[in-house]
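User: Second chain of the day. Same drill as before.
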Amino acid sequence: MSWHDAAELFLRLAADHLQRNLPSNVNFMDYWNQIKPAMPAGADLPGKVGMGNLNEIRRTLKHYGVLPSKDSIERSSVAVTAFFTEATELIFGLTFASIDLIDIVPQDDVKSYLRLADDCARQGDLATALGWLLYGFDQLVRRYIVAGNSRIGTLNFGGNVGSMAVPSDTGHDDLEGAVESLVECVGELQEAMQIVSLGISYADYARLYAIAPHIERDSDGYYMMSGQPGTTHSESDYAWARTFVVSSALTAARAEGLVTVLSTRTRPRFPRRRIPVQGP
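Assistant: Same format as last time:
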């Protein structure tokens, strides 16, 4: 079902790219005839036979509950891969393997840290790669938390509790400990609210925070990394973390409108004025 949906979305995108104004209710197999007049140099849109078989598998599964065989699934996998590989290059002039979700991450700074992480991963340094992913994620959240004047940043949820000084030398050790615990607790709740308010899974963030080394930039501009000694990292850890950061960046981008508003406003001032409609 997912392969079929992906192929249909690709066909709709291809039609738009080729400036074919198609109705919204085009049948899946009709795309080949509808797109053909706009194909480069009169070429045929590839993959019609394989996609036809996939369409039939979907139809019998969806309408009759007939589960596809293992052999059918394997053939469909080959057909879908071949379709995307050939059609992408033919229509968009790109190799399918070169397409990366990083390309559509809208925050340039986050994108740069993702690419830096990829460079480290290609060199086999998964620890540093994960560290840059976590650092990029932190910069992503910070983008929306400190945008504009912090007093009106609605995603701040108050001042930075984590930086508050805890009273000391009061002569009341129990009170000092209680205040310190309270500040720590509220700081963690604040951080969680900031992340959740962007539509990002806090549980996934906690997982990233647990597995990735931490990178910080010191006052001299050097980056310092720290992590648990003896910790091993797998390629599956990196693949998961990379997908999480990319999807978080795309999800958080919905707050760009807030960034724009806050960057042009110093303090909310709403002068009182009469309105023509009377209240109840």
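The first helix runs from residue 2 to 17.

User: Great, on to the next one.
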